[in-house]
Amino acid sequence: MKTIIVPVDFSQQSEYALKVAVSLAKKHGAKILALHMLELNQAIITSTEGFYPEQTVFLIKLAEKRFKEFLEKPYLEGVEVKPIIKHYKVFSEVNEVAKEHGAELIVMGSHGADGLTEIFVGSNAERVVRNADVPVIVVKDEMAGFKIDRFVFACDFKLENLSAFKRAKAFAEMLSAEFNLVYVNTPGDNFLSTGDAYERINTFLHKANSSDEVSIHNDYSVERGVLNYCETNGADAVGIPTHGRKGLSHFFMGSIGEDIANHSKIPVITFKISD
């Protein structure tokens, strides 16, 4: 891993993300691109009137000053951090910056869930996930000395998830992390017998040219099964497949992807399904 992008909005959550990125950067010798999306009105940027360019310059200078103060933290010592300011708050730009700089990972802060309010859905983090071709780590809390030794990838092992699986496996190899695969079997319409479950899994692994083992975990819901499996097996992070057009709701059925991202105590890493 050589380059990590951290979108920064100067919130506590973006600092949590920055700290996670620093832990990974120190372990893998990577540099960090701290990216701030400066929300400017299109009329301000394009106007030929004298006032607007001056206002634009003022706002950019103000952001630069705030950025400088934000990045003056002791934990950043020994890590190369490059601040980048973009003029528009367009979340597809995060992916464009990743492509331009060859970044392998985006680390994004999110509020997650607060009681009954699901903040992740429709949030900045969810928008970045929709557009990102590289893995995105969603961080909600402070995680001192974060590292990924054991990585769980949860999947329904339908063939459409092959590209996400390959990205997740490559990610685990890049971090030298133990790669655990889990299929969650639930009661109701989606229930599979042991034989049917292994038939689907074996077909998937054959297509992926993989000899990895898969655990079948039985639970009352996919979300609960994924989270319980991760807790029982001491996972440091959990990966789920996502679809650019449909966001996290493409994972399994309904809003399971959002539920996992909202309620997981460990960072969630998303891997895009190729269109």
CATH superfamily of the largest domain: HUPs
Distance between the termini: 25 Å
| Shape-level CATH architecture of the largest domain | 3-Layer(aba) Sandwich
- Helix count? 9
How confident is the prediction overall: mean pLDDT? 84
Structural class based on helices, strands and sheet pairing: alpha/beta
DSSP strand count: 12
Lateral arrangement of strands in the main beta sheet = 3-2-1-4-7-12-11-8-9-10
What would you note in describing this structure?
This is Nucleotide-binding universal stress protein, UspA family. Belongs to the universal stress protein A family. Residues 1-140, 149-271 form the UspA domain. It is a single chain. The protein is of the alpha/beta class and 275 residues long. It folds into 2 domains: 1-145, Rossmann fold, CATH 3.40.50; 148-275, Rossmann fold, CATH 3.40.50. Helices cover 39% and strands 23% of the residues. It has 9 helices and 12 strands. It has helices spanning 12-28, 42-46, 51-70, 92-101, 124-131, 162-174, 194-207, 222-232, 256-263, and strands spanning 3-7, 31-37, 81-86, 105-109, 113-114, 117-118, 136-139, 150-154, 178-185, 214-218, 237-243, 268-273. The strands form 2 sheets. The protein has a 10-stranded mixed sheet with strand order 3-2-1-4-7-12-11-8-9-10, sandwiched between helices. Strands 5-6 form a two-stranded antiparallel sheet. Helix 8 runs parallel beside helix 9. The protein is elongated and about 65 Å long.
